[in-house]
Design brief:
With 274 residues, the chain is an alpha+beta fold. The chain is built from 12 helices and 9 strands.
Amino acid sequence: MSVDGMSAALAPYVTTLAAYDLGPATAGPHRGLPSSTLSITIPEDDFVDIAWAGRPGSGRRLRAAVAGLHLNAAELSQRGCTRGVWLTLSPPGAAALLGVPASELAGEVADLADLADVVPALAGLPERLAACRSWAQRRAVVERGLLAGLARHGDRAARRTSRGTLAALSRTARVEEAARLLGCSRRHLSNTVRGEYGVTPKEYQRLVRFEAARGRLVAAARGGVAGLAEVAAASGFADQAHLTREWRAMAGCTPTEWLRTEGPSARRAPDGRA
């Protein structure tokens, strides 16, 4: 996915930059689904409450939430204004823009201002965005902050990134196939991916497959077609039952339940990702 009009320098790292609206607070928490990208959620006002679904006591209240790669659903809610700005970053984007390897954020949610090497232009984003009066202003403020982060961390991040590794995993169904494409052993691939991104190659492929299914479910719902069996086949699942099992494990609900409560017609949320 590309972001229209964004600086070419940010294109390898920023996959989404959008406004969001979680809908009325009475609608309950928004379910943040697993994804092959990291996300940054910046409420327009106040704080965002985030907890891992099914894990009592895991909740945190943050001014700007950074979620690493995760294989379980999160729950997001805002008490007052439910709008804000939402970004997703490719895994290399964590090091290039925030100065923190994606492996340090995997399975975690942190406050943007608390990241060890974050630049002031990014740490102060919530306050700068609160002063904006239009989406154009908010977008410009975010882009300036990201470019400042890239100027500080980009060269160092580029040296440690294994180019093509994630692309090979995304294009293949099995880790062995990706290793063969890359000309390395499975062990070397596993050590590289876990060390840089905090997940195993197999887990990353699960995230890619799940994300593909979510996108096709949304497209099918917008077209008025259920098509779960077709979505399962097109996304690399063995069958519809396999798709449903994986959704229960990773989203905490079935695809049909998610579409009913979080789908395109339910609320204007940030595409189901945390």
